[in-house]
Amino acid sequence: MRRSIASISLTLVAAAGATVAVPAQVAAQDAISLFNGTDLTGWTVHGTERWYVENGELVGESGPDAGYGYLATEASFKDFELTVEFLQEANGNSGVFVRSHVDGTRVSGWQVEVAPPGRFTGGIYESYGRGWLIQPDLGKDTALRMGEWNTMHIRVVGDRVTSWLNGVEMVDLVDEQIGRAEGHIALQIHDGGGIKVRWRNLRLVAR
């Protein structure tokens, strides 16, 4: 059952007091914290890969099946700005899906890529559809700090999606199919095994 933003209990935090970097135009607004730092309240696990909380951080890790895994918000969102921090351990092939729907381990929607160096972090990929819609210029890959905390900011308004990595604009895409959609935010574990990514400070401002 799809729930609206108002139908779930989420903690409000002041974005102005956050430690993560966000574009100036949202710095003075209130943000919703999607992760409470304690458990997976407000999220749904899809697949058999591992999602758990450790030291106040949300961890996604490959399980014994080494398949795809997703952790999706129970709430649906359309227009928003999302800021997340991630740290890639081992192979960091992951991503943040927007306006998505998950059925088992099959996802529809659009992924803002999180990947090891040279694998187009910040680009936008449509799973089970058109594939890569846009990739950042290779020179922008220097913004990624493998093995350290990174800040990703994603703006989804109407048919436009923009991503920033550590303050660097990675891509800016206008797409009619994205504009018609609404759905969940979902974190991914890629198949293949050996993947581990930590997440924290997942904060959203509705637009």
What does this structure look like?
- The chain is mostly beta strands.
- The chain has a single domain, classed as Sandwich (Jelly Rolls).
- The chain has one helix at residues 176-180; strands at residues 11-14, 30-33, 43-46, 50-54, 57-61, 69-73, 80-90, 94-103, 106-114, 124-126, 131-134, 149-157, 160-165, 168-174, 184-189, 195-206.
- Strands 1, 2, 4, 5, 7, 12, 13, 14 and 16 form a nine-stranded antiparallel β-sheet that branches. Strands 3-6-15-8-9-10-11 form a seven-stranded antiparallel β-sheet, with no helix packed on it.
- Strand 8 and strand 9 (106-114) form a beta hairpin.
- The model is unreliable at 1-28 (pLDDT under 50).
Secondary structure elements and their pairing?
Elements: E1 11-14, E2 30-33, E3 43-46, E4 50-54, E5 57-61, E6 69-73, E7 80-90, E8 94-103, E9 106-114, E10 124-126, E11 131-134, E12 149-157, E13 160-165, E14 168-174, H1 176-180, E15 184-189, E16 195-206
Antiparallel strand pairs: 1-2, 2-16, 3-6, 4-5, 5-16, 6-15, 7-12, 7-16, 8-9, 8-15, 9-10, 10-11, 12-13, 13-14
